[in-house]
What does this fold into?
Amino acid sequence: MLLSHQASISVVGTGRSTHSIDQSGALCWRINPETSLTEVLLVASLRTGQWGIPKGHLEHDETSVAAAVREAFEEAGAIGSATAKPVGKYTYSKGDGQTVFRVTVHLIHVVRTAEVYPEKHLRQSRWVSTADLPEQITRPMLRRFLLEFLAKSVQP
It folds into this structure.
């Protein structure tokens, strides 16, 4: 059951309204034991195949951080500790732009990856060094968020 964090906003001059939906995202990171480089976990969208971070809707009575931890596990099997305080937010829209998604992002330091998890056979995931991360992301708002975050951080 989805948490009803939705708002309706009238778009001036268009005669139509948009809906905004809150989501939670997981910026999963680790130190690669072989290279000692900081890496970020990316997952492929089920709909488009584009690379992004694990994210999704909040369940009923679920906190943003709990949703981020759940999404990281469901989409990529990532297990670790999350920051209670979000590291930032970004927005995106789908289709005709009438639905705007507001994603609150939490850092998750991944300590291991499960061998079995709900979406293992549905989507791809991969670890990418922070240096290579920007070129992997094609979604403009997520890319901008990640570039700004990385510019402020030596490592997540």
Observations:
- The first strand starts at residue 6 and ends at 11.
- The radius of gyration is 16 Å.
- Helices lie at 64-76, 133-136, 140-152.
- Residues 51 and 136 are 7 Å apart (CA to CA).
